[in-house]
Amino acid sequence: xxxxxxxxxxxxxxxxxxxxxxxxxxxxxxxxxxxxxxxxxxxxxxxxxxxxxxxxxxxxxxxxxxxxxxxxxxxxxxxxxxxxxxxxxxxxxxxxxxxxxxxxxxxxxxxxxxxxxxxxxxxxxxxxxxxxxxxxxxxxxxxxxxxxxxxxxxxxxxxxxxxxxxxxxxxxxxxxxxxxxxxxxxxxxxxxxxxxxxxxxxxxxxxxxxxxxxxxxxxxxxxxxxxxxxxxxxxxxxxxxxxxxxxxxxxxxxxxxxxxxxxxxxxxxxxxxxxxxxxxxxxxxxxxxxxxxxxxxxxxxxxxxxxxxxxxxxxxxxxxxxxxxxxxxxxxxxxxxxxxxxxxxxxxxxxxxxxxxxxxxxxxxxxxxxxxxxxxxxxxxxxxxxxxxxxxxxxxxxxxxxxxxxxxxxxxxxxxxxxxxxxxxxxxxxxxxxxxxxxxxxxxxxxxxxxxxxxxxxxxxxxxxxxxxxxxxxxxxxxxxxxxxxxxxxxxxxxxxxxxxxxxxxxxxxxxxxxxxxxxxxxxxxxxxxxxxxxxxxxxxxxxxxxxxxxxxxxxxxxxxxxxxxxxxxxxxxxxxxxxxxxxxxxxxxxxxxxxxxxxxxxxxxxxxxxxxxxxxxxxxxxxxxxxxxxxxxxxxxxx
Length: 640
Prior knowledge:
Blueprint: H1 4-78, H2 81-92, H3 97-116, E1 121-128, E2 133-138, E3 146-152, H4 160-166, E4 174-175, E5 179-181, H5 184-189, E6 193-204, E7 207-217, H6 218-232, E8 239-244, E9 250-253, H7 259-266, H8 273-276, E10 289-294, E11 297-304, E12 314-321, H9 322-325, H10 327-358, H11 360-373, H12 375-384, H13 390-406, H14 417-426, H15 430-436, H16 440-484, H17 489-504, E13 508-514, E14 520-526, H18 528-536, E15 540-542, H19 548-555, E16 559-561, E17 582-590, E18 593-602, H20 613-639
Antiparallel strand pairs: 1-2, 1-7, 2-3, 4-6, 5-6, 6-7, 8-9, 8-12, 10-11, 11-12, 13-14, 13-18, 14-15, 16-17, 17-18
Helix pairs in contact: 1-10, 1-16, 2-3, 10-16, 11-13, 11-15, 16-17, 16-20, 17-20
């Protein structure tokens, strides 16, 4: 019964301390969790913007390149001698042998162009400045081109595109809006042929006398665009590509194709983009935009076309479901946040144990002081003292009680030997342990200090590790995206090592490939001026030699040299790379075979960490795959 007050006080003190510990540690864990989650969401958003921008640029360049081929053919005909002679003859005399001869030459050029491009070009014609058709060759059926030397008087006189096309300077080509060829037969069968008309001036001595019009099938361009996007969309299954015209009507949709939308356009109806995705009902129809939030979707738009003053005005849209596009980053952020909370709880458990152990001295002190705080103990002590005056006994009892309440003194100085003997008999055995123990308050404060330092250290290390890992993955993803569109092996690998040095800030990077005999790792691609000189010198290292590259190519295992100046380092000094202080080499493997090594060097010791090997190995695997594909292509070409 005498220990109850001490137990109650001890439990209250421990609870009060742990309450503050929980607030500090779990508050820090919650803050770290929020930072990690917010950082993951921000990173996911940034990756989405970069991905949409890269895809838009890629397809805009592809469309422009395809349109440029058609425009080049139209320009070449317009600038030909036969076109200029015929244009001049139509002005000089409408009936002459010279006119007939130049018309025959022009029709021959027209026919040759359509014959060399079957199924691509529907018609080519010469149109005068007044809108009359004078010489044309058509091939709407897909058979042999049909020349027509007759004059279609004022056929395009009321066409608004006539004046805009004639206003171009020589050499410029107009890409006119999507149109459809139809006849009573095609309308009866429900078929139609979409085409894009290209028009370019025919100029003689600085005067524009007419136009060359080239009608190109649009379905070939749209099918190629859809095929290319579907091949790329394997990595982005939730993404949707939509091509719209100047008024927001759908031309092509990666989700459903384009036939139904082309049919609607042919029927002069069209399908507004807002009817496909409600959030796109207010999409801006001018300029380009990146990562626009529209309810549950994020879209980016870019104007695509030939780049001429008179252009198609098409707009390419990329639409992502925001939740699906950022699911990986959100899950990663939630995982990191859960890890931070779990770490906080673990720290709280550890601190609870540590604080409990630290408070044992306080508990011992309380247990030792309790007998001296009870009235019956004070009475027993008073009766055992020598027969002095009452004032003297009260004074001695007060000194003993004060000593044990504070726990400061282990002995009480007395003058009489009998009083010292009495004290030895009366002091509980635990008092000596308390007196010899360290200051309990100081230990408690030190425990808190160590715990706080431990929490901050773990939080900082966790945050730094997550940020470093996210940064490395980000850079590796950017290098992968920027090299994914390159098909030439030399260009791809040179771009890869340049990006590795530029993005990571490394001193040097290079690629070794094992020769056909399997004896040497031969340097094939290397960074900078030093790399160029080593390539000229035919730098190579024996497989299995006492070098970093020799070990990697022999064992197929990555090697990291943290300090090249350390004794026993396998690093071989290269006078062309004098500043190298750390080196990492990763195997280039195809299946079970090692075909080479990716070598990365830096001028700062201990720049590479073992836990980063997986990130850099991804780059090495991509390089190995590119080399294997190139060799396979060479073998196929050699066999054929």
